[in-house]
Fold:
Amino acid sequence: MPLLCDMFERKLIDELTEWAGKPNRKPLVLRGARQVGKTTIVEQFAARFDEYLYLNLELPQNQEPFKRFTNLENLVQALFFLKNVSRKEGRTLIFIDEIQEVPEAFWQLRYFYEQAPQYHVIAAGSLLETLFDSEKSFPVGRVDYKVVRPASFPEFLKATGEEAAFQQLESVPIAEFAHDKLLSLFHTYTLIGGMPEVVSHYAQYRDLAALKPIYDSLLASYLEDVEKYARTTAQVAVIRHAIRSAFYQAGKRISFANFGKSGYGSREMGEALRALEQAMLLHLVYPTVNTQPPALPDYRKSPRLQVLDTGLMNAFTGLQPQVLTATDLNQIYHGTIAEHVVGQELLNLQSGALSRLDFWVREKKSSSAETDFLWPYETHLIPVEVKSGAAGKLRSLHQFMEQAPHGLAVRFYAGKFRTDNVKTPEEKHFRLISLPYYLTSKIEAYLAQV
Structure:
């Protein structure tokens, strides 16, 4: 059975390797919610170095050098001494974990870039936004960022030992005989989600019932963290309500006022949800009215809510039995689960600090329309729908295509891969690529085939 860290090997380890080989390399900051596997990824990557220094700044003894030394050479000497590692020729990786605990450490990253580029420096923290109001200078332009998210479906296959299924997923186009098994495996992935501890336990024991204590522990840890990113005592209760309610509202367009039937006003609930977005526990997905780049989000319109992980959503809302027995994900919760997991997979294709999801709306009394997502591809915005049914019944997608300056659209569903030539009510012809849910991570490869 593969180790937990192996599930990330194809995605982030390759990106870290590319970063390490850059001649003008900057310190790298890994962002992500707690327990999405940031530390595990770096520890696997560290095996490629001659020396490795790990500093967890939640530990007082590891904080001291950063608080005491402002001179970089003295700081480096103190770090090697603290970890009982000899400085010698070769590649050295310094990993500063939970860096938000010591704002001075984040500020000092600039000096590694300016004065000691020979060291490979990675920092990580789940609550980095607590530093933004710090009096210390933020090292703008002197660090790079990557986002770590829960495991994607391809990573889930690797972690659970489904090597043959993974190889079929990588083949474009996919073999027809692989469809039923991959669809079944994607249902399992949708059911349990991509949180590393959950996936690791399932990979080892294949016991769905035994996962409940892990979900409970994850949710409890997020609720306990509230004090760390609430600005005031009064905001603690608001944010805790926002966390609990977010799982029930996930996949839906929301209003800040009275969110989760709370009685809280728009301003205080908006601040709470944005704090959770900064902590990367959720995403506020805003619509755009554009059918060609750039997809400018309209912050005056209601956003759609995307939470950290579909498995956590299922566990918290009690939807697991429905996911377990459904033959088509689109039949569950009015299609919300299918849309949410596709959104999670699309987010997983992005690791940049500014990555986001978009969707398109046309809000008119006589003919309103809304696509589930937009995907930027080459010079186009590709409409993405997550729906079953005939190609000709995708009304919102047809309305988008009548305005779009291109002829490509994507639909995710439970059926097999196919392409259709489709005509809108206004007689515009376009190509509809229908992909099974499990091919969400391969959207670009299939767009390139058409």
Observations:
- The first helix runs from residue 9 to 20.
- DSSP finds 18 helices and 15 strands in the chain.
- Confidence is low (pLDDT under 50) at residues 1-8, 131-136.
